[in-house]
TrEMBL record, chain A:
Keyword Glycosyltransferase: yes
Chief subcellular location: endoplasmic reticulum
Localization annotation: Endoplasmic reticulum
Lineage: Eukaryota, Metazoa, Chordata, Craniata, Vertebrata
Organism in which the protein naturally occurs: Ataeniobius toweri
Name of this chain's protein: UDP-N-acetylglucosamine transferase subunit ALG13
From TrEMBL, chain B:
Family statement drawn from the similarity comment of this UniProt entry: Belongs to the ALG14 family.
Pfam families: Alg14 (PF08660)
Name used for this protein in its record: UDP-N-acetylglucosamine transferase subunit ALG14
Topology term for the membrane: Single-pass membrane protein
Primary location recorded for the protein, binned into one broad class: endoplasmic reticulum
Domain of life assignment: Eukaryota
């Protein structure tokens, strides 16, 4: 499916997962897999599409890098709050989202052109508020 | 009574006479043990104990209420610097809190980071961040401490209470030693015992500790469990989506701040 959409290379960050594919496991794509890196900023920068779980850090990193983002939600975590963020960002047209079972379908039919750029958060507002509240000069 | 039950299970009419003897002896012993005066005394003691407990709890709650509704007499910033205890949970929590820390000016010092003992990644992120700051003094402006994790993902509710209490036993001496002006946290279970320790410092009249809670950007419609616990006792409770601000009127809404 990925090849049909024009993707030629797949980089996988596997973490503590049990499945670590070899470089030659897929005939249509060049596959690279690693468990952890100190920073995946470089991989993000080179990507044309980021597929991620709905963790805030991962989402924010991909969106801050300005990359089209497809988020796959884990519906087995207690209290699936991850879905709230994915749904809100999707409503605001910042990312597409799906579940593990609908991933294939979504990859086939997704339209990335609807995605809007994601303006960064403003931690300075937090600092200014706190300075005033605590009497910091 | 126990003896008679035991023997009635074994069938045998021949045992009937022995059974009655044993039962009457047991009853006499029972009567001797619990004489009337002894039982009344025990009752009084129990009532006295319960009343004392109730009174202590009431006083405690009253103090908690007073501490929470009062601002401090002197805002911490007036002294020139604000000592912060920063709770770094794992993964996304650390990322969010470090973004907040990046925005704080130099007056927020010293910075005491507290991480869970099973957390491997947060320490690196903290050290990287702190190394990037310009050093105005030769001595360290930050510390990193570890406490047992309050709760692992997927941990059952009942064992979570035990592990949170264990974390509390570490948090209390740590917070009592560090005496921060402010506790900054954003959602991991690790922050509950630390905030409780901070509140205790205020309740015991030792120091008013500002509880600053920033709910994660993940929380759009509902508060996290930690958020729901700390909302009533926080001095400043930040939410990042308007839907939460509508549901929690005491919360501060400044839009997305991470």
């Amino acid at each position: 499916i990925l090849k049909a959409r024009g993707y030629g290379r797949l980089v996988l960050q596997v973490g503590r997962g049990t499945l670590v594919p070899d470089a030659d496991s897929c005939a249509d794509l060049s596959v690279e897999a690693f468990r952890f890196k100190d920073s995946i900023a470089e991989d993000m920068r080179r990507a044309d599409l980021v597929i991620s779980h709905a963790g805030a850090g991962s989402c924010l990193e991909a969106l801050s890098a300005g990359k089209p983002l497809l988020v796959v939600v884990n519906d087995k975590l207690m209290d699936n709050h991850q879905l709230e963020l994915a749904r809100q960002l999707h409503m605001d047209h910042h990312l597409l989202y799906c579940t593990c079972s609908t991933l294939t379908e979504t990859l086939k039919n997704m339209d990335l052109s609807v995605l809007q750029p994601f303006p960064p958060g403003q931690p300075k507002n937090f600092a200014n508020f706190l300075d005033k509240a605590l009497g910091v000069k | 009574m126990y003896l008679s039950n035991y023997f009635s299970k074994t069938r045998g009419g021949g045992n009937a006479i022995q059974m009655n003897d044993i039962a009457s002896i047991a009853k006499k012993k029972h009567r001797l043990f619990l004489s009337k005066t002894a039982s009344v005394a025990a009752m009084m003691l129990l009532l006295g104990f319960v009343f004392a407990l109730f009174l202590t709890a009431l006083l405690f709650l009253l103090r908690l209420y007073l501490v929470v509704i009062s601002g401090s007499n002197q805002p911490p910033g007036a002294r020139g610097h604000v000592a912060v205890l920063v709770v770094a949970g794992s993964g996304g929590h650390t990322t969010e809190i470090m973004r907040l820390m990046e925005s704080l000016p130099a007056a927020y010092t010293p910075r005491h980071y507290v991480i869970a003992d099973t957390d491997r990644m947060s320490e690196e992120k903290i050290v990287t961040f702190e190394s990037s700051k310009p050093q105005s003094h030769s001595d360290l402006q930050f510390t990193i401490s570890r406490i047992p994790r309050s709760r692992e993902v997927h941990q059952s509710w009942s064992s979570s209470v035990v592990s949170t209490l264990t974390a509390l036993s570490y948090s209390l001496p740590l917070v009592f030693r560090l005496r921060p002006d402010m506790v900054l946290c954003n959602g991991p279970g690790t922050c509950v015992p630390l905030c409780v320790a901070g509140l205790l410092l205020g309740i015991l009249g030792m120091k008013k500790v500002q509880i600053v809670y920033v709910e994660s950007i993940c929380r759009v419609q509902t508060l996290s469990l930690t958020g729901r616990i700390l909302y009533p006792v926080s001095d400043y409770f930040f939410v990042q989506w308007s839907s939460l601000r509508d549901k929690y009127p005491k919360a501060v809404f400044l839009g997305r701040i991470v």
